[in-house]
Write a structure and sequence with these properties.
The protein is α/β, with parallel strands linked by helices. 37% of the residues lie in helices and 21% in strands. Bound molecules: adenosine-5'-diphosphate and alpha-D-glucopyranose. The site of adenosine-5'-diphosphate has 19 residues, from α1, β15, β16, α14 and α15.
């Protein structure tokens, strides 16, 4: 099947969070299953070295508001996956993906309108006629409406069906009305039945209203976002109207990449069968040394790897941890909201021998921290899916998380038959304190090795979820189409 994937970030090319893991590893998995997959990405500064490896570069003209922009498209092949980097250096060759120092770029409407239009123009120029265009999050949200409004009769793109996956309802791509016209859409789209949202243009809504199928990244979140204005972020009505085409497909993990048995970032490899034979202990020892953690090593090390955002509940985590300081060491890796960073830095500086904070985005340190952690803390207020908890389990850390979204689909209370972690009610400090107490107590008890092993042996691979996407595509296209010959 010919599948076009479009996203604003994807591993290993550009990453700020879980969207990149999913867009990159889902595309690669589908390609490895034999499908003809073309992944489209903006050529950000951090991805420029990939364009240097391009097998072919072409130039395309993209209509953009009153102007026509000349863009280059660099084609790269990574195993079976074809990747097209859309290059307009004025828009994309910048230090950040969406912004810098916690502040979004002021022209993100222009950047991602251009991206969406350029994806379709590039597909045409390449004569890549997808059966399915799969767009991810608001940055690619204009693709479904552009296909319907501007490309319905196009010989290359006219037959394409669209799938839109929401990775986070909280990011809606809301811009002044003029944003609509940049991509070539008419002002008539500024109506409630189209992409207008309280007087503005919403790229997210464009995807939700116009895609042939909608998905989100866990079954639980698919249900939650239809329930209330808080969880649906104001879009719950549209989601309910379209619930017959909406489904939740749990994210998978690239289990080859996130694999403590062959992770080059770790001092000594380990797997589920060998986790207690020194590999995990070596990772913990090295990290404690690196971070200057000095209190009794008989205590569990709690790890956090997170975007710094209200969503992730780190303010609640600090409040809950403050009252049980004697029972753990803590290492936090995070970037995002500067105010949250200040409060975590202050917290760490009050207790330097037991709490460490590294501010920034650091892929290699993230691997070391997952491996070093005994407990992984993820007290999100909401969580569409969450990959952090899956990675942590794979590296033998036991999760303390909130009973919400994809966390509730993947973490189960320790005392249940399928237990692998500890759950708290989202946004509730008291409940988090109790979950932490249960975890800290269990750490010193006989159940711990079983919990660790159980998490490590859980299958988070793409096998099942990639199949679910293929079923969805096939069902949409209306026939069972096998992989290319
Ligand atoms: P979200 O996408 O909401 O940020 P997920 O749990 O789905 O949350 O995915 C987060 C991904 O980003 C994981 O791969 C995690 O390891 C990574 N990550 C988050 N913050 C950092 C950071 N500061 N440095 C390195 N990796 C990070
Ligand atoms: C979003 C969500 C996260 C999810 C990720 C990948 O960033 O916040 O829960 O895992 O997308 O789908």
């Amino acid at each position: 099947m010919r599948i076009l994937q479009a996203a604003s970030e994807a591993v290993p090319f550009a990453k700020t969070g879980g969207l990149a893991d999913v867009a990159g590893s889902l595309s690669a998995k589908l390609a490895s299953l034999g499908h003809d997959v073309f992944l489209f990405l903006p050529l950000y500064h951090e991805a420029r070295s990939w364009a240097g490896k391009a097998r072919r570069t072409l130039t395309i003209d993209v209509p953009f508001g009153p102007e026509t922009r000349s863009l280059s498209v660099a084609l790269v092949e990574k195993e079976n996956l074809r990747v097209a980097f859309v290059d307009d250096s004025a828009f994309f060759d910048r230090p950040g993906v969406y912004g810098e120092n916690g502040v979004d770029y002021g022209d993100n409407d222009r950047r991602f309108s251009l991206f969406c239009r350029a994806v379709l123009e590039a597909a045409k120029a390449l004569e890549f006629a997808p059966e399915v265009v799969h767009a991810h999050d608001w940055q690619a949200g204009l693709l479904p409406i552009l296909l319907k409004r501007l490309y319905a009769g196009d010989p290359v793109l006219g037959a394409a069906h669209s799938v839109f996956t929401v990775h986070n309802m909280a990011y809606q791509g809301l811009f002044p009305a003029a944003a609509v016209q940049l991509s070539g859409l008419g002002l008539k789209e500024l109506s409630p039945s189209s992409l207008e949202f309280y007087g503005k243009a919403s790229f997210l809504k464009a995807g939700l209203v116009f895609a042939d199928r909608l998905t989100t990244v866990s079954p639980n979140y698919a249900r939650e976002i239809q329930e209330s204005s808080e969880t649906g972020c104001g879009m719950e009505g549209i989601l309910r109207q379209r619930s017959h085409v909406l489904s939740g497909i749990l994210n998978g993990l690239d289990v080859d990449y996130w694999n403590p048995e062959k992770d080059p970032n770790l001092p000594k490899p380990y797997g589920a069968a060998t986790v207690f034979q020194g590999g995990k202990a070596a990772a913990k020892k090295a990290l404690r040394q690196e971070c200057g953690l000095k209190v009794d090593s008989g205590l569990p090390l709690i790890g956090i790897v997170s975007r710094l955002d209200r969503q992730k509940g780190l303010d609640i985590a600090i409040a809950a941890l403050e009252r049980r300081l004697g029972g753990f060491e803590l290492a936090v890796l995070g970037s995002g909201d500067p105010a949250l960073a200040v409060s975590i830095r202050q917290y760490a500086s009050r207790h330097p021998s037991r709490i460490y904070f590294r501010e920034g985005f650091d892929e290699s340190f993230a691997h070391r921290l997952y491996a070093a952690s005994d407990i992984f803390l993820m007290p999100s207020r909401f969580e569409p899916c969450g990959l952090g908890q899956m990675i942590a389990m794979r590296y033998g850390a036991v999760v303390v998380g909130s009973r919400v979204g994809g966390l509730a689909d993947t973490v189960f209370e320790a005392d249940s038959g399928i237990g692998n972690g500890f759950l708290a009610e989202p946004g509730d400090i008291g409940s988090l304190e109790r979950a932490l107490d249960r975890a800290l107590e269990a750490y010193h008890g006989p159940m711990w090795p079983k919990l660790v092993e159980h998490g490590m042996r859980t299958d988070f691979s793409w096998d099942r979820s990639a199949r679910a996407y293929v079923d969805l595509y096939e069902n949409l296209v209306g026939a069972v189409v096998g992989p290319k010959a």
